[in-house]
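In this section we walk through a basic example: taking a raw amino acid sequence and producing a predicted 3D structure, encoded as discrete structure tokens. The instruction is simple. Fold the sequence below.
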Amino acid sequence: MVFVAVLGALVAVALSTAVVSGVLIARSERRTLRRIERVEASVESTRAKASRHEYHQELSLARIERTTREVAATTAGLAWFRPGGEARTATSDVPRVLFVTSNGGGMGHIARCSAIIRHSRGQLTGRILTLSTAAATVRDAGFPVEYFPSPATTNGGIDRWRRQFARRLLSDMAEHPVDVIAFDGTWVYPALTDVAEYADVPLVWVRRGLWREDSDLAQVEAWREHVSGVVVPADVAETRATAPEPFRDATWTDPVSLAPSQRESRENALATLGLDPSRRYALVQVSGGNTDGTATIAAVKAIRGAGDIVPVVVRSPLLPRSVAADAMTIEGKFPLVDVSAAWDYTVTGAGYNSVHENLHTSTPGVYLPSATTLMDDQEKRARAVVEAGLGLVAHGAEGLGRAIAEMMAGGRTDELRDAIRERKVPQGAARAALAITETRVAA
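The resulting token sequence is shown next.
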């Protein structure tokens, strides 16, 4: 009887303990939920207080991450791809790299990938899969490029685009085996990260520096969660030593551009363009907020009024034909830097490629920094060029007249060209190619 009583008491205690534990766990869960709700409310409050620019940028980046969150949800539909199959049966002696770029209608990212392929010195074989509508232009120049529409150019919805993008990546890799994927853009699509992991292929982020101070650094600070390695081409305005702390944790190279190893002669460059060698020319190619042609018109007018230099405008579907009425026009050529010897100087934006192509070819430039770029700090780059005595800057279309007049006065063009030659900005494309292939070895 005593035993039964003791046993009953123990059972009662156990039951009571279980009940109490259950109550405590439930209370703990409710407290946790309330804390989560408070944190979420705090986040929403902070977002609401943020500036309109920052808020929209955050939403845009969050939307990209959310809507591209990979093939984890579509693995069943990708079962046909086998990482251990043909795509990975043997590693090529020369690493095979699939370059993937963002860029809607721009040329920046695809041009940098083309530069790495051009100057790789046999360290890799590369192909490009790009979201840029400039794919055909680059392909016509002899680069192996395939195009995939960006979400902005499709009508099927972002979720469908995400699935199609993932399948296209794997389909491309199944047909053309790769050893490394190199992504050039400012935000690594999570679909890329997951496809690379699924296919057991290292993913390298080729990340241009000189970001605006208000840029989202979430991926920069936690890059190991997204990619296998980061390669940063240096900038005339930023090196590893001068970059903000989060950007230093990467492999840095000298500036990268498409500038040829051997510059074409002026005579050959002019013959390629069909221009009269007895005249002198200035290239006008302004982008970033110039869709109405205001800056181009101002540049052409200033060049005409400053001397005997002939302004040359590259035809573009984005520019009204009337803006080049007082200038010579040429068909777009890629890479246009190959005929840089044709120009006494250029009038361009202050984007990464425009500035470093000029520095790699000793071409003086008047730079009109764009204020519409989301992450590229063109104003800082233009200031650095001026402070180093390597070019001139125009502040707004109204400032082009003054800058161009200075370029034409008292041998200024020759002074700038000599200064650029003395600076000898090195080409970093071959080192970038090596860094990408070294990631394959490390992986």
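Looking at the output, two observations stand out. The chain has two domains: 71-256+429-442, 266-423. The longest strand covers residues 96-101. In the next section we compare this with other chains.
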